[in-house]
Amino acid sequence: MAPDKGFARDHAIVVGSGHAGLLAARVLSEHFNTVTVVERDRVDPDTTFRAGVPQGYHPHFLLAKGAQIIGELFPGLLEEIADAGSPFYDYGENIRLKFPAGWTPKTTTGIQIQGFSRPFLEQRIRRRLLELPNVTLADGFTVDRPLFDGSSGAVTGVIGRDADGEEECLYADAVVVATGRGSRLDHWLRGADLPMPTVKSIDVKVSYTSRIYQAPPDDGWKVTFAYVYAPDVRRGGGVLELESGTAMALAMGIGEEGCPPDEAEFARFAKSLPFSGMANYIDGHEPLSELHRFVDHGDWWLQVHRMRRWPEGLLVAGDALCRFNPIYAQGLTVAALHAKALAATLDNGGDAREYHRRAAKVTLTPWLMASSSDLLWDSGRSPGILARLSHWHLDRVITRIPGDPDLFNRFAHVQHMLSGAGTLATPGVLWRLAARPRPAVQLRV
Ligand SMILES: Cc1cc2nc3c(=O)[nH]c(=O)nc-3n(C[C@H](O)[C@H](O)[C@H](O)COP(=O)(O)OP(=O)(O)OC[C@H]3O[C@@H](n4cnc5c(N)ncnc54)[C@H](O)[C@@H]3O)c2cc1C
What we know:
Layout: E1 11-15, H1 19-28, E2 34-39, H2 64-73, H3 77-83, E3 89-90, H4 91-94, E4 95-99, E5 102-103, E6 112-113, H5 118-129, E7 135-139, E8 142-148, E9 155-161, E10 167-171, E11 174-177, H6 185-191, E12 199-213, E13 223-226, E14 235-241, E15 247-254, H7 263-272, H8 277-284, E16 292-302, E17 314-316, E18 322-323, H9 331-347, H10 352-374, H11 385-400, H12 405-415, H13 427-434
Parallel strand pairs: 1-2, 1-11, 2-7, 4-13, 11-17
Antiparallel strand pairs: 3-6, 4-5, 8-9, 9-10, 12-15, 12-16, 13-14, 14-15, 16-18
Helix pairs in contact: 1-5, 1-9, 2-9, 7-8, 9-10, 10-11
């Protein structure tokens, strides 16, 4: 493959076989002679839940934009997933979300989505990726740090340990760090005497307590969910359909409002929600799994794109670059956008700095969407005028959604990253937002 201005294109390494790593490897496979995905966990074609991705025990809702990119990278994969037990359905016809002002209206949005667990999606993507002749997976291999060229400073590979603890160097022209939330990139950079990029962060304690059940929701909806909402609604939860007629129940809390992984507490939490659907569901169905808890700390973005000096060939993607409060369900889609940014960079013969600039550009809108609400929860920070204004606008939208299917449709397109935020700020919409909200026709729950 033709060498370009950035780095040679013989061998690329991806560290981490999570969602971002798999998608990055797919992109690299078109530009490098060989690609090695290095993964700490032992992984075989059937692996689903695993230690390296503990968030896999919790609901992972894939936004339509993320699904669209996955479909482009792996043609036919979403249809294959549908055949394997996760049929497509319309977002507005099959999902109902409870906001403080009421339920989202039942309406056709044209947004086709699917329900599955995170490990199921990852397994299907991994299988398709490993069918490519120039991609291999080195599992059971823990990367300890990248290697750098002494004179140019460019990355030259990684050093790590295999499953028997044997140290080994793997050489490459480019290394994508896709090590997720537990990324040790800061440590790796310090160890190589390289400056650490600055970090933007918003501290919000979010906890998820989840359990998988044997039966799909039986109330006619694929997802029924009461949302947390800044700054006052700190408890949420509901039931989401997954693959093959299973479902997941989730108790979500902000700050100290979370639910311990205890059966009685889970039932009590469900009863405390402003609808009876989750309590009825968990009362009437057999669990397939234990209760799992995950505590997260909001939004975090490594500003690699602002670095004047950065090792050539060292690329950071997915949660290792930017992670979001999971309640907005953006992480899988942003990782897919990072893969697109990588593809555009490689098509352009670009370098690591170009990639990080492109990745920052696609990260910005989701970051603003998450941070404008999360700043209202971050007790240590006072939200700036931009965050206040954008939350004020969101408040108006959310308040009117129950009685305005067109507004919900627009909101859904923005939420799924299919339209820009301007869709919710056209003159016609602003006029409606200024008017008194129409009363919603509320369904009995
Ligand atoms: C509770 C929770 C719920 C979420 N819900 C949603 C949702 O509904 N929708 C959504 O879009 N996103 C959601 N997310 C975000 C989503 O999980 C992440 O954005 C996504 O997993 C990012 O993928 P990644 O590949 O960057 O990281 P990961 O998927 O975490 O993968 C990192 C991989 O790197 C490997 N690794 C780490 N260190 C090393 C090393 N040194 N050597 C070798 N391998 C290594 C790990 O074993 C792992 O396989 C949620 C997150 C959480 C915490």
